[in-house]
Amino acid sequence: MEKFQQMFLRQQKYIFYLLSLYTLGWGFTEYKTLFLSLILGTVVSLFMLWSLVRKIEKFGRAVAHGKKVRSIGTFSRLAAAALAAAIAIQYPQYFSIVPVVLGLMTSYIVIIIDFLLQKFQKNGYHV
């Protein structure tokens, strides 16, 4: 599980870097709606990633102790994504739905990129 936790912390760091870039974009460019929408989607994406990691760790402990687990929280993550979309639709003067959806996909993109980076480093390539 320690390797799993290291992977999450690494991915969390990458997402925080992206959030800082989005914040700079929001503060210093004229594309306020775009960057605010990306921030909203990415923050919800980070929450969903954190929730998934927490539920998987709980699931792993339960399996190790021979206990049953009801679910890994898919409904709560879907509800968080729906909430982000509802906020974007409710406040179109501040948010745009397309960048919010792109922000919601951020954690999955970060997971894929992190996997590829780790795979290349494991095989001796330095990126």
From TrEMBL:
Entry superkingdom: Bacteria
Membrane topology: Multi-pass membrane protein
Ranges that cross the membrane: 12-28, 34-53, 74-91, 97-117
Keywords: Cell membrane, Membrane, Transmembrane, Transmembrane helix
GO CC terms: plasma membrane
Protein name per its UniProtKB record: ATP synthase protein I
Organism: Thermaerobacillus caldiproteolyticus
Organism classification: Bacteria, Bacillati, Bacillota, Bacilli, Bacillales
PANTHER family on file: ATP SYNTHASE PROTEIN I
Compartment(s) of residence: Cell membrane
Chief subcellular location: membrane
Pfam families with a match to the protein in the record: ATP-synt_I
